Design the sequence.
């Protein structure tokens, strides 16, 4: 298949990664109609194809952490040297004084100059492009690299993002293992104020294929975002694993994205667009409310959230359980669309639906079950909770039943505190 066709497939697959991972009973008419939630965007941002994200992101298709709008500039660089990957300057690499725009060829050469010695094939990329309104799209480069241990895909893109915005924050925040199973992830703030994340996990978090994905993302105080990824296969998807791990070590991958050449590129993109807070984004974080309403005796191991969506991983001493909640307004039309089966209508008109399921998120966790309590007030305010008997989505059961009883779940979701968290 021509590389251009594979890139098109990668873009389509990247779009697929932004679908919520919950069962339709949790998200139908809710997440799919509302704004995308923090934890899901983080998960998608980390596990999505870096190359595809660079292309989709600059087109403004999504607003996840890894996706930004912007452009970059680079010029031809000298052949790669080991010192380039160690983070030292590379003779001939583009600098802030570079004249002229960045072509596809210049971007690829700049990228290659920062890789260690090895055979490079299947080069692809894009330079700075500009639309009819003067808006620019950032450059990216991708190669198949072989250091003698097996061919591996490596790609990198440069864009701009509001450094104070939610997208920037999400792109350099490690996902919870309750949502994205991975080996390690480290987020840190560098001495110059830049934020950096190094993720080492898998292209498929459920490990149905053992393709590893290592990803590094940098966001500078001025809003330059550098996003690089590598795999232990010659393509991010659809190619057999060719080596035990991706070719660049964690420190090498960090040195790659923090090299000054990319900051110089980003400096020529102009000021990033300021991110406008989404409606409902100033409410109370769901995980905070959920934690406050849990029964005494539960120990919270992990939590994450934003206004509208959040989760906790709690343990009563008999095994950890994943609990997630959505709080939303304007859901009146769900009264007949979703609330069928085991539904009770309370005196105030609130509908309460209960459901128990095996393999609740359809991710194959062995022995996994989940209980759902979905509530809808007459004014369209909806709170829905799912409690699993596993510590995360797609994971094997850690206990016989969820950590909360149905009655406890009802008490929690009917609490008026949720009004402050609706997204």
Sequence:
């Amino acid at each position: 298949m021509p590389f251009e066709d594979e890139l098109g497939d990668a873009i389509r697959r990247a779009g697929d990664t932004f679908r919520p991972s919950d069962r339709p009973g949790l998200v139908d008419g809710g997440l799919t109609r509302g704004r995308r939630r923090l934890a899901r965007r983080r998960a998608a941002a980390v596990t999505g194809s870096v190359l595809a994200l660079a292309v989709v992101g600059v087109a403004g298709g999504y607003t996840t952490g890894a996706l930004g709008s912007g452009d970059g500039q680079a010029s031809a660089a000298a052949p790669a040297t080991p010192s380039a990957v160690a983070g030292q300057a590379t003779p001939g690499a583009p600098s802030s004084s570079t004249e002229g725009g960045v072509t596809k060829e210049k971007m690829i050469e700049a990228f290659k100059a920062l890789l260690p010695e090895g055979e490079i094939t299947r080069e692809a990329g894009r330079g700075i492009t500009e639309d009819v309104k003067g808006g620019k799209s950032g450059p990216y480069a991708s190669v198949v690299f072989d250091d003698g241990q097996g061919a591996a895909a490596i790609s990198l893109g440069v864009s701009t993002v509001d450094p104070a915005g939610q997208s920037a924050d999400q792109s350099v925040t490690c996902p919870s293992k309750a949502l994205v199973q991975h080996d390690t992830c480290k987020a840190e703030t560098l001495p110059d104020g830049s934020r950096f994340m190094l993720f080492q996990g898998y292209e498929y978090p459920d490990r149905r294929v053992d393709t590893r994905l290592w990803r590094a993302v940098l966001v500078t105080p001025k809003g330059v975002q550098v996003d690089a990824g590598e795999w232990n296969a010659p393509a991010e998807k659809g190619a057999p694993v060719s080596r035990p791990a991706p070719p660049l070590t964690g420190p090498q991958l960090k040195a790659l994205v923090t090299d000054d050449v990319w900051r110089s590129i980003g400096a020529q993109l102009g000021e990033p667009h300021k991110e406008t807070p989404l409606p409902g984004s100033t409410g109370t974080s769901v995980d905070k409310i959920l934690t406050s309403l849990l029964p005494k005796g539960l120990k919270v191991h992990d939590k994450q959230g934003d206004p509208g969506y959040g989760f906790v991983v709690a343990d009563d001493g008999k095994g950890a359980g994943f609990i997630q909640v959505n709080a939303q307004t304007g859901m009146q039309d769900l009264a007949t669309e979703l609330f069928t089966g085991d539904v009770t209508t309370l005196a105030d008109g609130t509908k309460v639906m209960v459901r128990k399921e095996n393999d609740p998120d359809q991710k194959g966790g062995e022995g996994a079950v989940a209980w759902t309590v979905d509530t809808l007030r007459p004014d369209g305010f909806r709170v829905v909770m799912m409690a699993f008997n596993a510590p995360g989505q797609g994971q094997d059961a850690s206990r016989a039943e969820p950590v909360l009883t149905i009655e406890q779940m009802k008490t929690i979701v009917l609490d008026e505190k949720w009004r402050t968290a609706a997204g």
Notes: Residues 3-267 form one domain. The chain has two domains: 3-267, 286-420. The two ends are 43 Å apart (CA to CA). The chain has a mean pLDDT of 77.
